[in-house]
Amino acid sequence: xxxxxxxxxxxxxxxxxxxxxxxxxxxxxxxxxxxxxxxxxxxxxxxxxxxxxxxxxxxxxxxxxxxxxxxxxxxxxxxxxxxxxxxxxxxxxxxxxxxxxxxxxxxxxxxxxxxxxxxxxxxxxxxxxxxxxxxxxxxxxxxxxxxxxxxxxxxxxxxxxxxxxxxxxxxxxxxxxxxxxxxxxxxxxxxxxxxxxxxxxxxxxxxxxxxxxxxxxxxxxxxxxxxxxxxxxxxxxxxxxxxxxxxxxxxxxxxxxxxxxxxxxxxxxxxxxxxxxxxxxxxxxxxxxxxxxxxxxxxxxxxxxxxxxxxxxxxxxxxxxxxxxxxxxxxxxxxxxxxxxxxxxxxxxxxxxxxxxxxxxxxxxxxxxxxxxxxxxxxxxxxxxxxxxxxxxxxxxxxxxxxxxxxxxxxxxxxxxxxxxxxxxxxxxxxxxxxxxxxxxxxxxxxxxxxxxxxxxxxxxxxxxxxxxxxxxxxxxxxxxxxxxxxxxxxxxxxxxxxxxxxxxxxxxxxxxxxxxxxxxxxxxxxxxxxxxxxxxxxxxxxxxxxxxxxxxxxxxxxxxxxx
Length: 564
Description:
Elements: E1 6-9, E2 12-13, H1 19-30, E3 36-43, E4 48-55, H2 57-74, E5 90-99, H3 103-120, E6 125-129, H4 140-144, H5 151-156, E7 176-180, E8 185-191, H6 196-206, E9 211-212, E10 233-234, E11 241-248, E12 253-260, H7 268-281, E13 286-292, H8 297-310, H9 319-330, H10 340-343, H11 345-349, H12 362-370, H13 378-401, H14 410-445, H15 452-493, H16 499-524, H17 530-562
Parallel strand pairs: 5-7, 6-7
Antiparallel strand pairs: 1-4, 1-5, 2-4, 2-5, 3-4, 8-12, 8-13, 9-10, 11-12
């Protein structure tokens, strides 16, 4: 979906067992044009479904309102039971900035939604996190204290009047919490125990809020108070983490259920390892873990790198391999199959057209190139050849990091392999980007030119499209040029058995630079902007000259090592 301003909405509905009810709610979301439903994650034991959708702000607010309205119609909270804390049919509905929008703007949209729900649906609404209207309502757990069963009494308390809607108990819908927050990861750790008490002990070790201190027995002892009469606490080891323990009858195990509210402060893999430490100290084993809803790709790639580094293995592997290592290391597939394509937000937001070429198999790519269509052409091929060269540099780095007798150098080669992988990814992106740049010129050519204004618009579009068609192959030149550094290092210090692979990579890199150079020059011919053309041609000529020299230097070293 092409949208400049994107927000994500992750409502939690108090129904996780009846798929007919869940579908009625998600069908309402689908009725709003422009909104993309990304994930529906029901839980039987919690009797709760986490739904994720994205879109432009106005569309998301409308979809959220329709879903909250439908949930109020089809869910009866007076009959609800489940392991997860809850207070309403739509228990919580956070809005999260994704791209092109600030948190301050998202707060305004959250308040618009809260006002509409309170006034039009007669559901009491509390606002939390960045949208909190009172400091003591920032924390969701504080608002939800007492849950649905204590809501009627809560609404009678003058300190707990809703932010929107009337302070009237709605037995069918309960109350809803709406807010704006950063991305939150809902994450459960699986334990080989059925004890909720022991799961809670681990949760208290981990969560930032820690545990209340007591005299004598840590469970039944008298609470120790501070000078203000508040319970003293022993903080947990993980910042920006909330956690509780529970028993999940569906799985027959206890879990530590965590919310990671800032994955930069406490990444997923750190939370997992700390849970392992705490569980082990109690004679309990972590058997795996479970993600609820979606996660940013970085969560899993960072975890993959973390576990590879612990094994003293190279992190310079593909994105898919990093994610595979993360899934297996965290045991994300213990309770159910885990498909990253269905759980990583970036993958769900991908436009298939963005990878129309690189997603093809080799035969189909060659067929597309050999067809009568002018694109893909030399520019895309240059980028792809460059990607192969960078890949060979990464390969030599990875092979060198595992070479027997070189164990003390694995981190050095891992770093170079990772550089090669990054260059490969950029060049693969440019394979399709070159074709998109060419198509932009075709689109400009086809623009109407009957009037003076149309001629002016068409001319400007042609100019900008041609400039971009020059800039893209120049980026190919720059990126392929950078791969020489990796290939030169691997030629000099990498596994000697792979020096010929480094040599082939060098030839690919030079071909990419030279091929992209030809595309820069031919596209410059059609642009009437002397200053831009002269600058790009001058830089391209200099880079080509340097690439030719560098290729010769490295190939001389390759030949010397091979003995030819």
